């Protein structure tokens, strides 16, 4: 009896994850993230919304089953550099974004290489390394270390002179 309940629960949660409403919600997070970034300077509530969206994405990045969906979303990947560049205006956003990069890059080689092959992400990550905010620079350093687990990422980091910034 208990096994049947667990099986039903698993099936329903898998169905929910693949349902159109779940995909719609997932797309909405990215849309909200983009809108929040665009209105960050003029609208204070955009900061709150941005923080909530980043926290949502951080939780997704810790779940291996959702990581591939997250990393295959080109909108999310294109938003990483501007999110990392919020270091001066909203350090917790840049910090959390660096943590997301680290978490995703450790999930699989495919995820790691997808991030490592994007020069804009790597450059923004290196810019965050030299942040005056210690938490941001520490999160960026950890993300660089996490990315460095693959040879492709190490090669790409060398190509953009990451070693000089790390020193």
TrEMBL record:
Signal peptide: none annotated. Coiled coil: none annotated. Keywords: Methyltransferase, Transferase. GO terms for biological process: methylation. GO terms for molecular function: methyltransferase activity. Residues 1-12 have a biased composition (Basic residues). Residues 1-24 are annotated as: Disordered. This is Bifunctional lysine-specific demethylase and histidyl-hydroxylase no66. It comes from Thalictrum thalictroides.
């Amino acid at each position: 009896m208990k096994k049947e309940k667990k099986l039903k629960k698993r099936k329903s949660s898998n169905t929910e994850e693949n349902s159109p409403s779940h995909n719609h919600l997932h797309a909405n997070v990215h849309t909200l993230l983009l809108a929040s970034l665009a209105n960050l300077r003029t609208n204070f509530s955009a900061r709150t919304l941005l923080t909530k969206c980043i926290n949502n994405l951080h939780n997704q990045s810790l779940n291996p089953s959702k990581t591939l969906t997250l990393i295959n979303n080109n909108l999310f990947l294109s938003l990483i550099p501007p999110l990392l560049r919020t270091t001066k205006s909203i350090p917790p956003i840049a910090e959390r974004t660096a943590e997301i990069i680290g978490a995703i890059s450790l999930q699989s080689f495919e995820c790691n290489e997808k991030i490592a092959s994007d020069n804009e992400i790597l450059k923004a990550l290196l810019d965050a390394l030299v942040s005056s905010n210690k938490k941001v620079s520490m999160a960026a350093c950890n993300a660089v270390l996490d990315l460095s687990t693959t040879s492709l990422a190490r090669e790409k980091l060398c190509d953009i002179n990451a070693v000089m910034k790390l020193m």
